[in-house]
Design brief:
The chain is α+β, with helices and mostly antiparallel strands and about 90 residues long. The protein is built from 2 helices and 3 strands, in the order H-E-E-E-H. The two termini are about 25 Å apart.
């Protein structure tokens, strides 16, 4: 079993610069347009699986994505969220 990182970020309580960065990454990743599940075409053992839920004015959207199927535009958002949770 891999390492679990669980937590939440609230853009209303983040420092202004971080909140702007988060919103920018959400837009550039087109998060709310992503399908609920993203899986690789071929099995990819020993890879991370990310489950991410975002609540915003646009609604709530949850995705589950294998590291092997991670869209390039989503990586910066996941990195930002992971780092923010680890540094909390």
């Amino acid at each position: 079993m891999g390492r679990k990182i669980h937590g939440s970020l609230n853009s209303e309580t983040l420092p202004t610069k971080k909140a702007r960065r988060l919103n920018s990454l959400l837009k550039s990743s087109r998060f709310f347009e992503l399908p609920v599940r993203l899986e690789p075409h071929l099995p990819a053992p020993d890879r991370f699986i990310y489950r991410l839920t975002i609540e915003s004015d646009q609604g709530t959207h949850t995705i589950e994505v294998s590291e092997a199927a991670l869209p390039e535009d989503l990586r910066p958002l996941l990195d930002f969220i992971t780092q923010s949770l680890l540094l909390k």
